[in-house]
Amino acid sequence: MLNADFRPLSYFPLSLWPWQEAVKAVFLGRVSVVSEYEDAIIHSPRFEFRLPSVIALKEYAPTHRRPAFTRFNVFLRDRFTCQYCGCRFPTHDLTFDHVIPRSKGGRTSWLNVVTACGSCNLRKGNKLPDAAGMPLIRRPYQPNTFQLQDIGRRFPPNYLHESWRDFLYWDTELED
């Protein structure tokens, strides 16, 4: 899904819609079809057409300056890297850790939560980082949407359909 200016609504994860929602939006006239899958055809009793692979909104949707506080966005902000040991992990091996533990008055917020691997989270336990001998690599901060999008460009999904590539990296510097 692209915005009306043909930029992705987000970079990671991609603005993906279930095919049923995309088809419904096309029929309701809310989106324009930019590209189609060559080998996927939709059939109904009266219609037959190719499944859209890239669609764009007809009306511009403003992006929010403050991204939602979600587990995935914390991982993205921290670049999928444990903020204690510095190792990068896949998302299923990451947790988030309260820098100031909740039992000591710490809140679940952008400024108190960091990405941690399971072993570091367990080792730190219910202590402050200094008391556990585990200083933070980077202090937590509240990113804006543009910061997360910039970080997200560096972490493309494992599978990109050919028809999507032209729309994801349009603003990156080209190689010589």
TrEMBL record:
GO molecular function (one): endonuclease activity
Name of a matching Pfam family: HNH_5
Annotated ranges, domain HNH nuclease: 69-122
The entry's keywords: Endonuclease, Hydrolase, Nuclease
InterPro entries: HNH_5 (IPR029471), HNH_nuc (IPR003615), NA-targeting_endonuclease (IPR052892)
Keyword flag Oxidoreductase: no
PANTHER family in alphabetical order: OS07G0170200 PROTEIN, SLL1193 PROTEIN
Protein name according to UniProt: 5-methylcytosine-specific restriction endonuclease McrA
Originating species: Caenispirillum bisanense
